[in-house]
Structure formats: C-alpha cells, structure tokens
Amino acid sequence: MSLEKFLNQAVSSWMSAEGPDSDIVLSSRIRLARNFRDYKFPTVFSSEEGRKVIDSVYESVKDHYFSNVGTLELLIMDELQPLHKRVLVEKHLISPYLAEGSTLGACILSDNEEVSIMVNEEDHIRIQCLFPGLQIKEALKVANEIDDHIEQQVDYAFDETIGYLTSCPTNVGTGMRASVMMHLPGLVLTHQLNRIIPAINQLGLVVRGIYGEGSEALGNIFQISNQITLGKSEEDIVEDLQSVVSQLIAQERSAREALAKTSNIQLEDKVFRSYGILSNCRIIESKEAASCLSDVRLGIDMGYIENISKNILNELMILTQPGFLQQYAGGPLRADERDIRRASLIRERLNLDK
C-alpha cells in the first residue's frame, strides 16, 4: 500500500459499497478519543513524547489482524505535502485539525479506508471507523475491537468515575462521537428540516454540514451526531442516534412521496435541469455542483433518471473538491481553473455511466 493509492483512489469502500438504507444514509462513523496515561496531552507534550506516541500506536496495531480491515499503513503528517493532506481531509480520512495542526501528527489507514487511526490530533489517539449506509453498531464493533487491542498494550488516561479523559471536556466520558451522513433533499424541499433540527438538538444530538463542525451542508448532505459523551454508555448513545436516524429516514421518504404526488412535474423538471447543467456545463463552482448533484441523486433514487449509479453523488462530491482537482492536475490551480476542470470531470464521469 502506498500514499499514492490513498490520494489517487477517489472512491473509498464506504462510498461505493451498498449499505442498509443507502438511498438516504451515505455513511455511518464511530470515532473514539483516547489518551495515554503516562504522557502529556498533545496540546502540551514535547516532540519526544509525540514521536513515542506514534511509535507505540503503530507498533501495537501494524501486525495485528482486525475484522475485514486489511493491512494498515502509517502516514506521518510532516512528510506530506499540504495538497496531500487536503485530499485526505476531503475523503474524510483525517480531520482538518490533524491536517493543519502539529507536525507531530500521524494517521494509520486501512487498505479499504474504513479505519483511520489519527495520532496526536487533539488527543493521542482518535480511532475512526467509517461504514456505508446505516451501520453505526457495526462500526462501533470494529472500533471497540481496535480500542481493546491497543488498551492491552498501553495504559489509557481513565477515571473510574468520569471515564476516559480527553483534551476537550466535551469528549470526556465515553470519548465517543457517533455520526451518520444523510442525504435529505426531500425534507429541505418541503421546508421541514428547519423545524426538525431544534427537536433533534433537544435529544442531545447535533446537525452539521458534510465535513462536521463549522462546515456547510453542501448538496443537502447533513451529519447527525451525538453531543453527550458523559453519563451514557457507548451502546446507549448509538441506540439513541440510530432511533433518531430511523425516524429521519421515514420522514425523508414521506417527504419524497409527497413531492411526487403534489409536485411531480416540477420535481422532475428540477432534476433534469440539474442533469442538463452537469452534462453540458463548461464552468461550475463547487456549491452549484453540489446542489445539482443532489438533485440528480434524488432523480436516480426516485426513478426519473436511469442507467446512472446512485454512488455517483458520493464519488463526485469527493472528486470535485479543490484538493482532488489539484491532485489530478498535478499542482495548484486558480479558482477559475478549478471550476473549468470540475465541469470537465463531471461531464466525463456522467458519460462513463451511460
């Protein structure tokens, strides 16, 4: 396995594989934050401690077999070019914080890109498992397997009353963030989502954009995740999230059915206008591309458009990001050059699927 593979292969398994309810749920993610008892947290540790943490984590996992994960590859952030790190962020394999933060950061990635162990981010370890469709419980099972194995090799910073200790107080307790990425155009078009979000927040969950905290909900894609990590077990948190997501899936399907009954020709027109733009444009900005891709994906799901894979949304939402466009171009591009290449890439991909 090489860095080039992670950079050049746009489609991770979570994007291309079918999962439960994958017409609405694009992916499920579990992230566990852990710290070593005998080292200072990454915000204040020394360079020597940072390097020891990387060595300890990699040594503990490199030769071990984890369920359906494949081999693991170590990437040192300080050895990567800024563009390479941006591509890994766009693929959801590392966080923006790790990409932009300390030179002592690292990431251990699995062959299928479903597992990413970020080292020396805000915490010593952040174990991430990313699965296609609604598979939060399955992702938790793999994350716990990796977590248990590492804990056999090192002592975690743990308090019997509070739980796992983390750099940020909002992660103390289970240290877990569970999130589901959903495509919700029906709820957006029927103006129901703004009413639903406050109710979700009252349940201890939060709705964010495609790249998490502080990001926009491009292309009607939203992340639903837990806010509470203290006072609940991992299983309870996942159960609560799964329950809310299941309700959202039902509401999204109902919204799509309502649109088909009351505004079918208008919705079909919206879908094919977006398809026409993507098929023929010569220049397109990222926001417009995301909006049109969302419409086309909805059209595929509702049967308006045939002979195009619904995974095209997942794929092109990644391929058309600035980092990927520049990676394929072999170097930096101005914004207008990216808009031209984005349009060309979308046209080419749509033609390949015909």
Automatic annotation (TrEMBL):
Pfam family of the protein (one): ATP-gua_Ptrans
EC nos: 2.7.14.1
Enzyme superclass (EC): transferase
Keywords of this entry: Allosteric enzyme, ATP-binding, Kinase, Nucleotide-binding, Transferase
Single GO MF descriptor: protein arginine kinase activity
Domain Phosphagen kinase C-terminal: 24-255
InterPro entries: Arg_Kinase, ATP-guanido_PTrfase, ATP-guanido_PTrfase_AS, ATP-guanido_PTrfase_cat, Gln_synth/guanido_kin_cat_dom
Activity regulation text: Appears to be allosterically activated by the binding of pArg-containing polypeptides to the pArg-binding pocket localized in the C-terminal domain of McsB.
Annotated positions binding ATP: 27-31, 92, 126, 177-181, 208-213
Protein's job: Catalyzes the specific phosphorylation of arginine residues in proteins.
Family: Belongs to the ATP:guanido phosphotransferase family.
HAMAP family associated with the record: Prot_Arg_kinase
Entry protein name: Protein-arginine kinase
Organism: Anoxybacillus andreesenii
Organismal lineage: Bacteria, Bacillati, Bacillota, Bacilli, Bacillales
